[in-house]
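Tokens in:
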């Protein structure tokens, strides 16, 4: 898929993304502390089941379970040399789950857990690392790429360069950020998103931001600073630690869908859920987008 082809699809309205992967895999039996990518390799039927539920709920773009399938992270399990192969296999798993009813986005993220990805002196190294993951994603048949939960502008720039070098023609970028639209690096998100868009991003926006009554306002502010499609994929509220030691997200599906519906009215064109969301959240959001419009209620 090309950037232009994605934009053509969005001329008719919105595209629904999927919801969370990791928090749902924990509910479905993944041991706490496991790497979701390796769990997916060992339990493909569990991931396939989850992603088929997303497709049935109305998701039109599935994110492959490749979030941290990067060379440095995989090397912790002595699998760095298999980066391309692992990414290709996980994309193929999502394509099987999609059954031709949804596009599959190869998913990649910040490198901050393994290196100083804020430092521009590491740009060339980051490009090299991202190239290996992107190569595997494309080999597996990814229709497009989704770089999410990015922290620093230089990460987006490195992914942009790596994608161009590997021939990826459609890449969406989303940053996690503070409620006022500031990145955790201190930069204003709007200017960073605009720069990426001008450099060739197919869509820009945010993910892993807590859904709240203030979220549509954030969409409105950021949306005015870019020209192309805006992406919103928030969490189901602010996280809390439960008595079981696991992270829980308190916002219910109805409230989440109503807030995202308002985000759509503010200009978001690619909508989905991040941490704490499941297929029910996406199904309710689909109903809002298809029929409720501005009258979607908290029911």
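Residues out:
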């Amino acid at each position: 898929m090309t950037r232009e082809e994605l934009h053509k699809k969005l001329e008719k309205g919105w595209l629904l993304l999927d919801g969370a992967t990791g928090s749902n895999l924990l509910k479905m039996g993944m041991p706490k502390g496991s790497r979701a990518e390796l769990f997916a390799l060992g339990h493909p039927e569990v991931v396939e089941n989850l992603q088929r539920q997303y497709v049935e709920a109305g998701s039109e773009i599935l994110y492959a379970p490749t979030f941290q399938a990067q060379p440095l992270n995989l090397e912790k399990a002595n699998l760095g040399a298999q980066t391309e192969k692992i990414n290709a296999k996980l994309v193929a798993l999502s394509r099987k789950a999609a059954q031709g009813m949804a596009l599959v986005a190869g998913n990649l993220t910040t490198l901050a857990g393994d290196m100083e990805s804020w430092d521009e002196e590491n740009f060339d190294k980051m490009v090299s690392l991202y190239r290996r993951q992107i190569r595997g994603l494309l080999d597996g048949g990814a229709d497009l790429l989704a770089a999410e939960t990015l922290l620093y502008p230089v990460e987006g720039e490195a992914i942009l360069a790596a994608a161009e070098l590997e021939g990826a023609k459609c890449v969406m970028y989303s940053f996690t950020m503070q409620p006022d639209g500031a990145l955790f690096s201190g930069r204003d998100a709007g200017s960073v998103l605009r720069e990426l868009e001008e450099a060739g991003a197919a869509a820009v926006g945010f993910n892993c931001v807590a859904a709240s009554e203030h979220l549509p306002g954030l969409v409105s502010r950021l949306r005015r600073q870019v020209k192309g499609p805006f992406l919103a994929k928030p969490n189901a509220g602010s996280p809390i630690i439960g008595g079981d030691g696991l992270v829980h997200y308190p916002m219910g599906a109805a409230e989440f869908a109503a807030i995202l519906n308002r985000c759509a009215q503010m200009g978001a064109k690619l909508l989905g859920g991040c941490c704490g969301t499941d297929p029910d959240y996406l199904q309710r959001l689909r109903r809002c987008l298809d029929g409720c419009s501005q009258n979607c209620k908290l029911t």
